[in-house]
Amino acid sequence: MNKSGSKKKTQEEYRTKKKLFFNFLTFGILLTLGGIVFQINQSVYINRNYQFQQAVVDSNIMFLGGFICLVCSYFLLKQLIKNNPR
What is the 3-state secondary structure (H, E, C) of 2-37? Predict the structure, then answer.
């Protein structure tokens, strides 16, 4: 009974890591694309009323967040491939 319990636990950990991988991958892609769109929008459209007002979120911060999420998803994928419970 211990072997089936530990197998179930490893399968549950595998599913959890798989969900985390897809979450990090999704947020990484969204933040990177959002940073690209924000940078294009910022360079094309400059409103004179808000010219000297600082933005709370910069495109570089979005790029950094997307890069961090993509790196995390890469290492989670390496763990998933290494520890496949099949």
Answer: HHHHHHHHHHHHHHHHHHHHHHHHHHHHHHHHHHHH
